[in-house]
Amino acid sequence: MKIQESAENYLEAILILSQQKPDVRSIDIATELEFTKPSVSVAMKKLRENGFVLMDSDGYITLTSAGLGIAEKMYERHKFMSDFLMKIGVSEAVAVHDACRIEHVLSAESFEKLKLFVKSLKDEQVL
User: Fold this and answer.
1) Band of the pLDDT at 2, cuts 50, 70, 90?
2) Which of 17, 19, 37, 45 could pair with 24 in a Cys bridge, judged by C-beta atoms 3.0 to 4.6 Å apart?
3) pTM for this model (two decimals)
């Protein structure tokens, strides 16, 4: 199922935050993404309704297995693209920004081929 880019960004942010702290709340997501708390609340409601996140009675947010799968996919793409762009000379700020956009539009086929290509360059000690 294809979900919107904004939902992928929210799920990725929840994953990253959950790796940094034991509990994630809407305010943490709002701070991380520089969004308003009401915007995050609306998004969390939609993500809950679609089965991507759970929220307990204290407001703590966790990813479901479906949400985690999407978040991990986006985070892997983001890290890979950021690293790749920096290795070819793009500044860190631009690489991170561009990777955030690329991760959502790159097909699974192209991403897998890019990973194989970079691996082959590393094997040949080119990169």
Assistant:
1) low
2) 17
3) 0.87
